[in-house]
């Protein structure tokens, strides 16, 4: 959510701040602003609306200076407006702050400051940070070279909730201060210039050498160096990380939208996820190579797996439940992280906790993971982001290797999460002796074929575009399925509602008659996902139930399958695979369907309303 940028160097700051913010537009925002420092004067310009509105205004209003911070805001406190946009300044107008996250005790802090004569201009929680900085800077810092750092340390010690901060002050024209807790912040290292950003894509055009700030750490950026501190003010020494993404991978590459590009990247992304993890020996069947996480006998002896995640990652976890039960014969619970963290769950030290998050910074997932870890659970993280908080705090990490995903609605991050889940389930099945050698070989062979099968689906994109053109105006869309197909239905419904704003829901097909069928009429489209062969008769019965009430039915099933010819209005065929692996394929045409429904409605699928890419607040 939101985006932070910072620059200090030898070039004009404003063009760089705007260019970096442009790379963060995918995160979702409703206003934008920048603050620069020149000759001891702090200048702030911020506006409601898209970044282009601010950029157009600044094209005729030069903001000089080689130091500054920028921000794109996603409203949490106060409506989208010029006044509520960031940066926010203190009462003196000499300190400017940009902030991602939520200050949960802002009301108490605001009262404290108002009692001391501070007049607030905005409705935001962030403004208290600027005024609190001024309070400690003028009253308790003691002056000197580190006064602003001292004031920042005292300020963040009073903040409850989540934050990443970028701070500049006219009294300190040689530095930017960054600080983080539960919200990502990254320092980019250049030559004679340094950068601050809330996500890697903002930095790729300028540097690939970065330092990820850990929890409650601060960074002071000078032109020629960066100093890191813990929340006690002690210096930290850390080697930078080299980002191996290339700039082109974070650009559209000729596609109309990032989402479409990322859907089309799934065959390559899945190949990367498999990569060296699928070992091939001459004359032998493929086997799983998990040297990176080294699952030992204690993990195989676990009695239970608990999967914690949010949104799309949660749906990957639902697939994981079926996969672990099917291949490893392990009891599995799948929890929505925002619920898990508050429900006083039972935690056993022998349990395996799998935390799934594309960004590795999802606030609820991190909190749930820490709760499980505090209770003695062992944490295995599945994430796409090297250096993320989740990857650093987990016991073991399995990276999806999806590459950068810019569109808010996740596609390749989801399918690569699925691939990781399947590999884990199969490996634990091998270790536990619940997976026969023949079944293991056949399943791995099928997994190895998935990337090229995904490409075959993508090559038939035009048919999905036409299907969407015929149905994008449906009032409601219900996705139904059984077992693995129900998990696919959950993600399919989310994709459609996220970007096309169509009312869509997912149902376990057998539950239709327990209430949901009351909603079905001629204005309803039912998408039946049918890849579980032993249950074809059951799903056909469910299709007949909705068709008799006037619903149009679109069926997703295997190529060459004739069982649904008499009950479907249209069939979307996917390549044949093992039933247990079907979500890897069945979701792809439904991602395209959602994309083209959004385009038909004139929506921007990359930046759906009210949503953000990385949910770093509750």
What does this structure look like?
The protein has 618 residues and is an alpha/beta fold. The chain folds into three domains: 3-248, 4-Layer Sandwich (Glutamine Phosphoribosylpyrophosphate, subunit 1, domain 1), CATH 3.60.20.10; 258-459, Rossmann fold (3-Layer(aba) Sandwich); 460-605, Glucose-6-phosphate isomerase like protein, domain 1 (Rossmann fold), CATH 3.40.50.10490. The chain is 34% helix and 23% strand. It has 18 helices and 27 strands. It has an eight-stranded antiparallel sheet, covered by helices on one side. A seven-stranded antiparallel sheet has the order 5-6-7-8-12-13-14, with helices on one face. Helix 3 crosses helix 4 (127-139) and helix 9 (311-328) packs parallel to helix 13 (412-432). The termini are close together. 54% of the residues are buried.
Could you provide a short overview of the structure?
By secondary structure, the chain is of the alpha/beta class.
* pLDDT < 50 runs, ≥5 residues: none
Query: How many helices?
Result: 18
For the termini, the CA-CA separation is 11 Å
Per CATH, the superfamily of the largest domain is: Aminohydrolase, N-terminal nucleophile (Ntn) domain
- Quickly name the level 1 CATH class of the largest domain: Alpha Beta
**Structure summary, number of beta strands:** 27
Tell me about the largest β-sheet.
8 strands, antiparallel
